[in-house]
Design a protein that fits this description.
- By secondary structure, the chain is α/β, with parallel strands linked by helices.
- The protein folds into 3 domains: 277 residues, 3-Layer(aba) Sandwich (Rossmann fold); 148 residues, Orthogonal Bundle (Isoleucyl-tRNA Synthetase, Domain 1), CATH 1.10.730; 58 residues, no CATH class.
- Helix content is 45%, strand content 14%.
- It has 16 helices and 15 strands.
- The strands form 5 sheets. The protein has a 4-stranded parallel sheet with strand order 4-3-9-10, with helices on both faces. Strands 5-6-7-8 form a 4-stranded antiparallel sheet. A 3-stranded mixed sheet has the order 12-11-13.
- A hairpin with a 2-residue loop joins strand 11 and strand 12.
- Helix 2 crosses helix 3.
- The two termini are 31 Å apart.
- The structure holds zinc ion.
- The site of zinc ion has 3 residues, from loops.
């Protein structure tokens, strides 16, 4: 059976309808997916990593099913203020002021950190990674359209979206389930600091105060776009007015995504997204992770073991495996005990996968119906990307592999090929785990880091057209049994 025939069986939980729905793309064979990226004013925290890992799983599985996916994930480098009521300082400008550096230095530093950490967790890069500051013109055009339609108003150089007016013909609150009457009564404003007609309105353009350094000219004032607007501008530009999947963390449902829907419906006069997907949060020892309470750990502190929270260091693939052992819509709690249990499971899986190469084949298979097992793996992922069920299925195969090794079950050559192919596809291509075996536990991770350094040096050599050096790196690695493979997602390596 061709994998693409499984496309028709994928079900996705849609946050908008609050139901699991059969996934039907707008254009057969193609998927447009937008995921809200980070605001780059601090080191990426584990909660964000979990969100992006969830969407990496989704991206990988859609690709595995044979879809051509255009995955757009933005970088927010302007416009995100300290609170959601359009007040306070721009987060990046504030960090720049405190550190006495340029805002774009802040952006560069934390964008590099973000990519570095996601690379360690083996996340595939998105197809397009646009920035808010690179799309100011597009954002201004959308504001003009919304003003023309009478759904926004200008006050003292700022432009606000008129939520009540919009709600006369549309439904504001349809995604988050909030009622407009409650919003009117519950929205707080700082006395005298707002030009808004109504507190629930949100900024499309803000006039910059004299001390605000991140500013652009517009028909209304020198200022900056509202935070919600960038995602409308960039998703429309790269995926069109109507696209398949929009994702983000659960905390973005309101107001960010609600406002995105309102902006798109106001400017494009159509609903922008078919499937809204939200990934749940991460807690640490049962408490929300927050810098302010100290209940907080950075990814690099976890890899090095230099932290007061966990008992030891954990490799990125182990943490990734741990995250995928929970469904993306469930809250996941980080603790030493839970991570240690995952670590054991992870190496058990890797050891079994490595053992496949050494199994003795028989004339027949006994102990596991491999074709049926493969179908169950697909069923798990087709049920709203249920990675914990998939992992449970992989452990059924682990048990079988160990039984074959012990002579308690049998596997034919054909069965072994299907088993190997399936377990490799689901473990490495779809779950995105890296193959580390328990015998090379720490040193395996170090080797991977060292080869990554060489891969990066080789990429630099190629960028400088120094092909002699890039070939030398490849050939000398090959000579010691490390093969580099160039693919469309960058260079990977395998060892023999
Ligand atoms: Zn967004």
């Amino acid at each position: 059976m061709a994998i693409s025939s499984l496309q028709g069986e994928l079900k996705i939980y849609n946050s908008l309808t609050k139901k699991k729905e059969l996934f039907k793309p707008i254009n057969q064979g193609y998927v447009g997916m937008y995921v809200c990226g980070p605001t780059v004013y601090s080191n990426v925290h584990l909660g964000n990593v979990r969100t992006f890992t969830s969407f990496d799983l989704i991206y990988r599985y859609l690709r595995h099913l044979g879809y051509k996916v255009r995955y757009v994930r933005n970088i927010t480098d302007a416009g995100h203020l300290e609170n959601d009521a359009d007040e306070g300082e721009d987060r990046i400008a504030k960090k720049a002021r405190l550190d006495k550096i340029e805002p774009m230095e802040v952006v560069q530093m934390y964008t590099v950190d973000f990519h570095d950490i996601l690379n360690k967790f083996n996340l595939l890069p998105p197809s397009i990674e646009p920035t808010a500051t690179g799309h100011i013109i597009e954002q201004i055009e959308i504001i003009k359209t919304i003003l023309d339609k009478g759904l926004a108003y200008e006050v003292n150089g700022s432009v606000y979206f008129d939520v009540l007016k919009y709600n006369e013909t549309n439904h504001y609150g349809k995604l988050s389930g909030r009622k407009i009457e409650d919003l009117i009564h519950n929205t707080r404003t700082l006395d005298g600091q707002t030009d808004k007609k109504n507190p629930q309105d949100f900024a499309l353009w803000k006039k910059a105060e004299p001390q605000h350094i991140m500013r652009w000219p517009s028909p209304w004032s020198d200022g900056f776009p509202g935070w919600h607007l960038e995602c409308t501008a960039m998703s429309t530009k790269y995926l069109g007015k109507h696209f398949d999947i929009h994702g983000g963390g659960m905390d973005l449902k309101f107001p960010h995504h609600e406002c995105e829907i309102a902006q798109s419906e106001a400017s494009c006069e159509q609903t922008p997204v078919n499937y809204w997907m939200h990934a749940n949060m991460l807690t640490l020892n049962g408490q929300k992770m927050a810098k302010s309470t100290g209940n907080y750990i950075l990814p690099n502190e976890m890899f090095s073991g230099e932290n007061d929270v966990l008992s030891k260091a954990f490799a990125p693939s182990v943490v990734r495996f741990f995250m995928l052992q929970a469904h993306y819509r469930s809250i996941l709690d980080f603790s030493s005990t839970a991570l240690e249990a995952s670590e054991k499971g992870f190496y058990k899986l890797m050891d079994a996968i490595n053992l496949i190469e050494k199994l003795t084949v028989s004339n027949t298979t006994e102990g596991l119906d491999i074709t049926n097992w493969r179908t169950k793996c697909y069923n798990a992922m087709n049920d709203d990307f249920n990675s914990p069920i998939l992992i449970a299925e992989l452990f059924n195969a682990v048990k079988f592999i160990n039984q074959v090794k012990d002579g308690k079950s049998m596997v034919s050559q054909e069965g072994l090929s299907l088993l190997r192919k399936t377990i490799h596809e689901f473990t490495f291509d779809i779950l995105g785990l890296r193959n580390l075996s328990s015998s090379s536990n720490d040193s395996g991770d170090k080797l991977s880091d060292v080869v990554d350094v060489l891969i990066n040096l080789r990429a630099e050599a190629r960028a400088n057209k120094d092909f002699a050096l890039s070939d030398q790196i490849r050939d000398q690695l090959a000579a010691i049994g490390i093969q580099l493979k160039d693919g469309k997602d960058g260079t990977t390596f395998s060892t023999n």
